[in-house]
Amino acid sequence: MNKFTLSLKMSFFLLICLVFMGFNERISDEYTVYIQKKLAEHYDSRLDEAQIKRYELNVTNRGFCRYKRYFNSGKVEYFSFNLVKFKDLDYYGTDKSGKLYLRTKGEDVIVQTYNDKSGGDIDSMAAYMMIPLKDIEPQDLADLSERLVKMNAQLLAQK
After folding, report:
1. What is the pLDDT of residues 130-143, one digit of tens each?
2. How many distinct structural domains can be found in the chain?
3. In angstroms, rounded to a whole number, what is the distance separating the alpha carbons of residues 148 and 81?
């Protein structure tokens, strides 16, 4: 009977842990979806329209922010950082057009350049990632900042 009770207690504890982990992941997905949506919705492709063929901008539920630009010349620029390293954001511009700087605690942004005819393939690190935005209201920036901070805190707690 003791073995059965112990097994029952362990099963119950495991079930509670799984429920909490599932709930915790859902919150992270909510932040991820919001951040991804806002960045994609307000991305300003007009800035480098003549040079850039396409871009990819992703925020993953594992906490990575990735930005990749494909140039008409064949050059590819890739920026990536883990939101655990997120420090703050700055926006320079107007509500019509500007640049969003996602700053990290140190040089935590991976910067890679491929197929660059003038400099070759380059790997380096940076302290920020710059994303051009358009038609963004101050309230959207405040919400974005708040969600990034909350996601950062959640990712640190999961670590």
Report:
1. 999 999 999 999 99
2. 1
3. 13
